[in-house]
Design brief:
With 210 residues, this protein is mostly helical. The chain has one domain. α2 packs antiparallel against α5. The protein starts with a helix and ends in an 11-residue tail after the last helix. The N terminus and C terminus are likely disordered.
Length: 210
């Protein structure tokens, strides 16, 4: 039988690769939008409104991911965390990542592109989630099975909310999660740069998807 440490290491590698791959895909999608033909009349107010919505969702994602890290930081392989955000969904970190990905895509001024970004992120994370679930089922057995039965995989169920009386905070995990979340903000200067190139004629098409 394969000993536990190598399995955990393998899971860590999968998670790191997932982060890098997700980041590369989002950057590629963001740059790709620079060459998208307009398929609808461009509305400046609408465009700015969608960008503002996207920025709000990015902030929610950053704060939400940091909040989740207060509960899960360093404990994922030691115990089943089922309090706070983990009481209403088994994968709140990923849920906030989907929200952040939508916000990144929304920096194009397009709800459609925001949705594509969120869907792409969901599909990327889906395999990682399956690997994590298999690991948790193997190591925590009935405890994880009970948690899995009462808690949705992604879509939060607020009625299941249960909080912890106190938390033991691990600053290193909190800072790392916060740092990772801040990378969502990189979408703003990237899109501003693309729009500047469009306005100067260096890129021929303007994004106008609803």
């Amino acid at each position: 039988m394969v000993p536990h440490p190598p399995v955990a290491l393998s899971l860590d590698i999968v998670q790191r690769r997932r982060k890098w791959f997700a980041g590369l895909v989002l950057v590629a999608l963001l740059i790709l939008t620079a060459s998208v033909h307009s398929v609808a009349a461009f509305n400046g107010d609408w465009h700015e409104g969608v960008e503002a919505l996207g920025l709000s969702l990015i902030v929610i994602a950053i704060v939400g991911r940091a909040w989740c890290s207060l509960y899960i930081g360093g404990r994922k392989k030691a115990e089943i965390v089922d309090r706070g955000p983990y009481s209403i969904t088994r994968n709140p970190l990923y849920v906030f990542s989907f929200i952040g990905a939508f916000g990144v895509g929304a920096q194009t001024g397009s709800l459609v592109i925001g949705s594509i970004f969120a869907l792409a992120t969901f599909l990327i994370f889906l395999r990682t989630v399956s690997r994590e679930e298999a690991w948790l089922a193997e190591h925590f057995g009935a405890t994880y099975a009970a948690y899995r039965a009462r808690t949705p995989r992604f879509w939060p169920n607020p009625a299941r909310w249960r909080d912890a009386e106190e938390l033991s905070i691990r600053p290193a995990f909190f800072v790392r999660t916060l740092r990772d979340g801040l990378t969502f903000l990189a979408a703003i200067p990237v899109m501003e740069g693309i729009e500047h190139l469009q306005s100067t004629g260096l890129i021929g098409f303007r994004i106008g998807l609803f």
